[in-house]
Amino acid sequence: MLTVRSLTAALLGAAVTLAVSLSACAATEPGVRVETGEGPVLGVSSDSGARFWGAIPYAAAPVGDARWRPPQPAPVREAMLEAVEPGAPCAQPAYGDAAAAPVLGSEDCLTLNIHAPAEAEGAPVMVWIHGGGNYAGAARDYDGAVLAAREGVVVVTINYRLGPFGWFHHPAIRGERPDAPTGQFAVLDMIAALQWVKANIAGFGGDAERVTIFGESAGGQNIYALVFAEPAAGLFHRAISQSGGLWNMSLAQAVNPQDAETPGTRASASEILAAWLVAARRADDRAEALELLSAMSDAEITAFMRGLSTEAVLASYRDQPDLGYDLPSVVLDGVIVSEDGHQAQLASGDYNQVPIMLGGNLNEQKAWMGFDPAYVSFTETGPVARDRDQYAAVDEHYSSWWNASAVDDIADHAVSPVYAYRFDWTDAPTEPADLAFLVGAAHGMEIPFVFGDFSGGFEALFTEDNRDGRETLSRAMSAYWAEFARSGDPGEGGGGLPQWEVWDQGRRKMIFDAGEIAMAPAPLTFDTLVDRLLADDRLSKDERCMILRHNTMYPEFDLGLLDRAGCAP
């Protein structure tokens, strides 16, 4: 959770998705025609043995007057939709040569892709929600063909609105829909996709009464949002969050200016609106823009916002690549997620009580540190840690906190069955660069294992030397995930694997490593983590305070904890 994480996360997310990049569009023979509520679609078959349908609209394009409004039903069509390619990404900043390509994707993007086993009928359905910080990524980056063919499940990958298009919480927008006053349009997109799945998935061989939602990183955070969201009730029956997080902002942090009595973030709705007004030459500077904003009516604000081009909306984010760290996404808005926070909502039972599988990776933070010149030097043979003790300490404290907050704390408070895991694979090469140490079981590294696809982009990590171990581990993980989708209990992964115990039988989680798959205790608590951090002499006081601030900043700084540690907010 470093301040440099937004750009490096986008870069890493692009790299991780290469490991599961689509092969389904390389069709080998015609697929089958399926009738949907909007019209017929024609898919293709691939070498993997799975059938594929891509770019199927599940909602109307959220453009023009539909921008920043809940999704509407997809239009009915009479013509056949040749669904042979995955859908284009939702609009997001294009890093690199911004002048040549300032935007990747389009606002017309609410589509889904389907991988299904040949001749599937009544198969469990797994709906994948991609990661990328909720401002980057795309459904097309994930190939569900191997998982579908190997485990007999239907895999659906969905696009949803990203960044300011998917998450904008200004009262002028929220007030337009008093019956659903939320700025979390991306969550509403996901609900619309699940509604489409419920109505249509039988035609693709899926069972609408056995739908599992699963996602990683921001996708895992969105899994939690759907678990909390009352409008999603009955649309899914199990949930899997991989390295998800609950660093959710308060509504005030998502809306207010930075200098308000309750400060907003740098990417709050007020700050971004002010930046847009300055860029549009409606104001000379931020102060004048905020004054103008306070004098504008809601109708004037929303008309101004909907009149901006896609490029203009994203320019404020593209020009400040670190801004994504402060971008409001899943917010405690009192509509999708309780204003009281996840602990109270889970403990009360006021959520969609389905079985939940959740977990994290041993070295989450190394995904960003390995790109960060503050921690590594770049040599002819690859990156080298500047200080191995410091590198290990920073990763340990961030990653342990991530696992405690996104896994253990949720499992402790949930009243529905919970199955927890930790992904420990660290068998990457040690030469010429020590990737086993520098990367290890980093954020996102479990995705190829779950999908069973190690193709493309990771030749330095996935080698012949570690092939047997990782493929064995991958088959086990895919089997557990699919068995959970089938029955709501990962059990023995369909047979022959260690029994995965429910969390409340002793606060234990399944450890996934190439050498061993086994249950182990999860002894860490937040108090233990704080004590360990404050006593760690591998780090300076400033470094310890930085970690503590980052881990307690949302929904608001834990001032008592910072004071105890002698750290300023």
Structure write-up:
The protein folds into three domains: 1-248 and 339-524, Rossmann fold (3-Layer(aba) Sandwich), CATH 3.40.50.1820; 250-326, no CATH class; 528-569, no CATH class. The chain has helices spanning 5-18, 145-151, 163-166, 171-174, 185-200, 218-228, 251-255, 269-279, 286-295, 298-306, 310-318, 342-348, 366-369, 388-413, 435-438, 447-451, 467-487, 526-534, 541-551, 559-564, and strands at residues 29-36, 39-45, 50-57, 81-82, 92-93, 103-104, 111-117, 123-129, 154-158, 206-216, 238-242, 249-250, 331-332, 356-361, 376-379, 382-385, 418-423, 508-512, 517-521. The protein has 569 residues and is an alpha/beta fold. The two termini are 16 Å apart. A hairpin with a 4-residue loop joins strand 18 (508-512) and strand 19.
